[in-house]
């Protein structure tokens, strides 16, 4: 693979001050698409500002999709990436929904592996950190007509990260949003596309001004059922059962979500994927059955939820950092870092 070297390498940040998505490594992988060549010209280049035609469709109509994965250092010095096959499959599904030609997975995988080998010194070792992987495909055709572009750029950025939520271990406060909606069935909610995130900002900022950390999105039809938290899927432990919203087309099919469901079931904990009404959550809290709540995501890992506010009423799970959240956090991060056996072959090992 072609690698264009840079003359001066960047200084690496202090692992204690990483935060999320603030630092980027020296190199990135890029590949281009046009109608006559298909996907071609995969190469590693310095991660520097990139020239884009300002008429590029992505800048006007948001035709773009992305993914998030993480790479970890292993005790044996190798690198592991958590369940990349699932991310590549989801990237292709998202691309299809946005009329973007899916990237050839083998070429994307090869690009990522080569990039990780080149950037292995950027993988932070400290507990709670990782090298975040951000692949994306954006429409670069310079045409203002509203139609699918005929040119695209695929790229992979790497960013050493710590905790997503400002580095504190405080459980997050959620505001269930009963006016604005993130997605509806038939829309793009289950695609990881740019517009879903842009359209979530207004309500998220209002919630933050009102003293909450994140919005808990509800269903678009009735504004009654919990869906997701935008940067993570949501789980509630009601009594001894863990409940999470079923994937109805409006919710992102999280890979951490799927992994948690599998781990819980394998450890004898019943998990229900179904609709969860906000009334049920409030009522469970009143009856002492809301034991814990947590979000899951690549960036968020397992994030405990300290309170949920809906219709002016705030409920608090009995355990702000619950035993299920702790079990999942410990198990998942230990599998990812290679300190627990990877019985399900979730890690892709890169030498
Ligand atoms: C992830 O968890 O990887 C995400 O993409 C969520 C957010 C940072 C956009």
Question: Keywords, please?
Answer:
351 residues, nine-stranded mixed β-sheet, 18 strands, 24% helix, globular, binds 2-OXO-4-methylpentanoic acid
Would you write up a description of this structure?
This protein has 351 residues and is of the alpha+beta class. It folds into two domains: 2-161, 2-Layer Sandwich (D-amino Acid Aminotransferase, Chain A, domain 1), CATH 3.30.470; 172-337, D-amino Acid Aminotransferase, Chain A, domain 2. It is 24% helix and 30% strand. It contains eight helices and 18 strands. The protein has helices spanning 57-61, 84-97, 105-118, 194-198, 201-209, 255-266, 278-286, 323-337, and strands at 2-3, 27-34, 38-46, 64-66, 69-73, 79-82, 130-139, 151-161, 172-177, 214-218, 226-228, 233-238, 241-245, 271-274, 290-297, 301-310, 313-315, 347-350. The strands form two sheets. Strands 1, 2, 3, 4, 5, 6, 7, 8 and 18 form a nine-stranded mixed beta sheet that branches. Strands 9, 10, 11, 12, 13, 14, 15, 16 and 17 form a nine-stranded mixed beta sheet that branches. Helix 6 (255-266) links the parallel strand 13 (241-245) and strand 14. The longest helix has 15 residues, at 323-337. The two termini are 17 Å apart. The relative contact order is 0.14. It binds 2-OXO-4-methylpentanoic acid (COI).
């Amino acid at each position: 693979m072609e690698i264009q070297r840079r003359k001066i390498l960047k200084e690496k940040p202090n692992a204690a001050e990483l935060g999320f998505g603030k630092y980027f490594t020296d190199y990135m992988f890029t590949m281009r698409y046009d109608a006559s060549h298909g996907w071609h010209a995969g190469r590693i280049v310095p991660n520097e500002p990139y020239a884009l035609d300002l008429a590029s469709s992505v800048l006007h109509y948001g035709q773009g999709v992305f993914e998030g994965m993480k790479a970890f250092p292993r005790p044996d010095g190798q690198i592991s990436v958590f369940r990349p096959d699932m991310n590549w499959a989801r990237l292709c599904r998202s691309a299809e929904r946005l009329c973007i030609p899916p990237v050839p997975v083998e070429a994307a995988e090869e690009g990522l592996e080569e990039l990780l080998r080149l950037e292995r010194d950027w993988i932070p070792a400290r507990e709670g950190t990782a090298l975040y992987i951000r692949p994306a495909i954006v429409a670069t055709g310079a045409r203002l007509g509203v139609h699918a572009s005929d040119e695209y750029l695929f790229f992979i950025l790497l960013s050493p990260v710590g905790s997503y939520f400002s580095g504190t271990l405080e459980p997050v406060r959620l505001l269930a949003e009963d006016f604005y909606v993130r997605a509806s069935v038939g829309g793009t909610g289950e695609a990881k596309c740019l517009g879903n995130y842009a359209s979530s900002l207004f309500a998220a900022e209002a919630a933050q001004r009102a003293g909450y950390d994140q919005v808990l999105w509800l269903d678009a039809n009735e504004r009654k059922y919990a869906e997701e938290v935008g940067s993570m899927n949501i789980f509630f432990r009601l009594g001894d059962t863990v409940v999470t919203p079923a994937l109805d087309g409006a919710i992102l099919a999280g890979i951490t979500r799927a992994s948690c469901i599998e781990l819980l079931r394998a450890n004898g904990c019943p998990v229900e994927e179904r609709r969860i009404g906000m009334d049920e959550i409030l009522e469970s809290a009143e009856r002492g059955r809301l034991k814990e709540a947590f979000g899951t995501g690549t960036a968020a890992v397992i994030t405990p939820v300290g309170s949920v506010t809906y219709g002016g009423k705030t409920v608090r799970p009995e355990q702000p950092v619950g035993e299920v959240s702790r079990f999942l956090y410990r198990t998942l991060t230990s599998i990812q870092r290679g300190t627990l056996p990877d019985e399900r072959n979730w890690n892709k090992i890169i030498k």
